[in-house]
Design goal:
2 domains, 9 helices
Length: 198
Amino acid sequence: MPVTPETRPSLILRLRNPQDEQAWAEFLEVYEPLIGRLGRRKGLQNADVRELVQDVLISVAGAVERWEPAAERGTFRGWLSTITRNLTVNLLKREARHPRGSGDSDFQRLLEQQPDPSCGTTALFDLEYRRQVFQWAADRIQHEFQPSTWSAFWTTCVDGQSVEMAASELEMSRGAIYVARSRVMNRLREVIEQRQRE
């Protein structure tokens, strides 16, 4: 699998200006759903997820001007993952001290089942980031393809259906399925790489 593009340095620089609404809109488009999914995976309720997203954005806004890329300090996405993980843990701890009525008396058990924050959280954050970037790019290019081409790609590459089954259902040859997949994947790569260069 190709390496997922890192957040564009130009966007990070633009985030330092709180008045740059376009930069913040771009940032939110990719990271807000990602942060929300991570919060829900950790068992946060919808209101807590919204609070987590807000807290992460406030933290990023307050610290992004001090963030500098450096190999020993890691990537921007890693930094953002750490912020998200720490704020999620803070929310879960606060819930444990002041639990809301959730209808579940086993909330403490839920907290105890949470994995060690240092284990795999960055990998999970990276996976969610790749999913979000893929979805962003797919939304932008779908209209460029015939519905049959898009269906051939989606059913085999996203839904995981076999080429043989997709060919039968879509009434296409196996070769046409492979060509459709290749065309869409190449265009996805182009869009993601172009976005990274901007």
